[in-house]
Write a structure and sequence with these properties.
single chain; mainly alpha; Arc Repressor Mutant; two-stranded antiparallel sheet; 3 helices; 4 strands; elongated; CopG; Ribbon_hlx_hlx
């Protein structure tokens, strides 16, 4: 199979849309291609999955039973603060233990 693909260009020279509110122009595409060809030298790769540590030491999983109202309140707080329910519970426990 020997297919030929033509480069798509906008006749008006405008942008191809936006990403995070920023216009995607021919220059943007060229910069992204150059970055990919260079192996993404400035990219920071974040590990996938749950963290194995919390703080400086390996973490353990602890099961806590909560009524639906408390679970809803923890999840709502986590959404407002753009964090996880685990983070909210750890901070609450830290504050309680410090008092």
């Amino acid at each position: 199979m020997n297919e030929k693909f033509d480069t798509a260009t906008r006749p008006d020279g405008g942008s191809w849309g936006t990403v995070n509110g920023q216009p995607i122009t021919e220059e943007t595409i060229e910069a992204l291609v150059a970055d990919a060809q260079a192996g993404f030298p400035k990219a920071r790769v974040a590990p996938v999955g749950r963290p194995r540590t919390v703080g400086k030491r390996p973490a353990e999983t602890v099961t806590v039973r909560l009524d639906p109202e408390r679970i809803d309140a923890v999840r709502a707080r986590a959404r407002r603060e753009h964090t996880s329910a685990s983070d909210i519970l750890r901070r609450a426990l830290d504050e309680y233990l410090a008092g």
